[in-house]
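Students often ask why inverse folding is considered easier than folding. One informal answer: many sequences map to the same fold, so there is more than one right answer. In these notes we will look at a single instance of the problem. The structure comes first.
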């Protein structure tokens, strides 16, 4: 069985593939600053999407989206603004948007994937 970190990395890879197939342009993965980490930053039309990826082997302990509470969304907004300040050319003229991808399955590449747009 894959470790939690391996499961998370595989889920992020599946999410990145899904986003690319859906017309997103990936700008950053696992971007870090003093305040935390953004899983994926992508451009989609006029939007700059900051995407949180949650991968679970099963829904026994709840749906992956349940982990994205108000506190987590506030933190993601702070991180989104920090990324935009550090990457002004990529962010210029774009509207920030928070998104989430949840994957449930022992194998993230075969599991169920759900993509929520604009989770603010």
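Output (designed amino acids):
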């Amino acid at each position: 069985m894959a470790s939690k970190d391996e499961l998370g990395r595989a889920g992020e890879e599946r999410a990145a593939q899904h986003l690319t197939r859906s017309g997103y342009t990936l700008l950053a993965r696992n971007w870090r600053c003093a305040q935390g980490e953004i899983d994926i930053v992508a451009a989609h039309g006029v939007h700059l999407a900051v995407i949180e990826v949650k991968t679970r082997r099963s829904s026994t302990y709840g749906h992956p989206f349940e982990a994205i509470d108000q506190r987590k969304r506030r933190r993601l907004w702070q991180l989104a603004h920090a990324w935009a300040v550090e990457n002004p050319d990529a962010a210029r003229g774009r509207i920030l948007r928070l998104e989430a991808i949840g994957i449930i399955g022992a194998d993230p590449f075969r599991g169920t994937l759900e993509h929520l747009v604009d989770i603010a």
